[in-house]
Amino acid sequence: MITDLPDFDSVNKLNDLPQGRYVVVESVYLRDGRSPMEAVLTEMVTLAENKIVCVDLQVMTVAGELRFRDFCLTPSGSWRDSYGATAFQLRDLLPSELSDCVLTLRRGTFVHHDGSGNLTYL
Question: Residue 19's closest CA among 50, 47, 41?
């Protein structure tokens, strides 16, 4: 849940996630040589169940435009994006431009969520 960007409002909120420990996995994707597009996909994965429960996406387009979207796993098992659209597969909500991207970097950080929208590093 992207919460620190000015003028970005989402129906998904970090404080909707259950309290607990997570690993935040950040993956950087680049378009394979045809354009300078870059995407950063950040997943929050529960440590107890090893389940992705939310995803942030930041894309720098070929025109130099920065786009944001976030996704949250709902109690029904479907994914909801920051605008309220839902699908049972996350890939159905992701922008089509990502299909041309290649993973270049992946790193993870362990965090604790207090249930009120606050993350602390472990």
Answer: 47
User: With 80 as the cut, is the pLDDT of residue 62 above it?
Assistant: no
Q: Report residue 34's pLDDT band, with 50, 70 and 90 as the boundaries.
A: low
Residues with Cβ within 8 Å of residue 70, at least 6 apart in sequence:
1, 2, 10, 12, 54, 55, 56, 57, 81, 82
CA distances from 1 to 11, 92, 101, 106 (A): 10, 19, 22, 19
The total number of residues shown for the chain amounts to 122
3-state helix, strand, coil in the chain (%, to 5): 10, 50, 45
| 66-91 pLDDT tens trace | 889 999 999 999 999 999 999 999 99
Which residues, including other chains, have CB under 8 Å from residue 112's CB and lie 6 or more apart? Answer: 20, 21, 22, 119, 120, 122
Beta-carbon contacts of residue 119 (< 8 Å; ≥ 6 apart): 14, 24, 111, 112, 113
pTM, entire model: 0.88
Map out the domains of the chain as residue ranges: 19-121
The per-residue pLDDT for 113 is 95
